[in-house]
Amino acid sequence: MIIKEATFIKSTTNYKDSPLPDKHEVAFIGRSNVGKSSLINMLCNNHKLAKTSSTPGKTQTINHFLINKSWYLVDLPGYGYAKVNKKLRNTFENFITSYILNRQNLDCLFILVDSRHEPRKIDLEFIAWCGEQEIPIAIVMTKTDKLKPAVLEKNIQVYVDTLLQEWEETPPMFYTSAENKNGKEELLEYIEGIVEPHDM
Ligand code: GTP
Ligand code: MG
Known about the structure:
By secondary structure, the protein is of the alpha/beta class.
């Protein structure tokens, strides 16, 4: 699939204010600074579409983009952003979880994790929570350009082994770089299978 057109539609902090759930939708989530906005821009061939920043906590709203006039791609705020105070963080995480639980047209939630790090507790807990809630997920390892192939290979294996301690099989997994566009085709192909016209 080629993304020919990506249009910003709306930023909200409440699923009730989101665009009508009348189109297929995929969303991207993960820790602050993991590279969600950069990955979205890479997929859409538009480096100005979603705002990116080297400072964590850039995306603080739910952002809907309409792709090829037919489906929604959503940039969600990062979880586990340490610098906001606890009350704000709870509010933040409540609106994200409430979005995930209530958005009827959410076909797949892509959970981004940094390929450089060992599996982190917060990510594993979030993945487990999605499992309990029966949210369809896929895992996207980001920033693979920062690793030598052998190290990447090892980190992938560690992630897979860790997931297999809890799951019978791993969710679909993708290995990407917004820098050198690795993984772009694979991810777009997978998304195509999700959003191409079929009954909702
Ligand atoms: P929040 O909106 O704050 O939650 O962050 P985010 O997950 O949207 O991350 P963002 O895309 O803003 O990227 C964070 C930083 O990582 C930026 O400095 C990016 O340039 C950098 N970055 C993102 N993806 C990659 C990648 O694939 N490779 C490299 N080398 N850097 C990346
Ligand atoms: Mg962002």
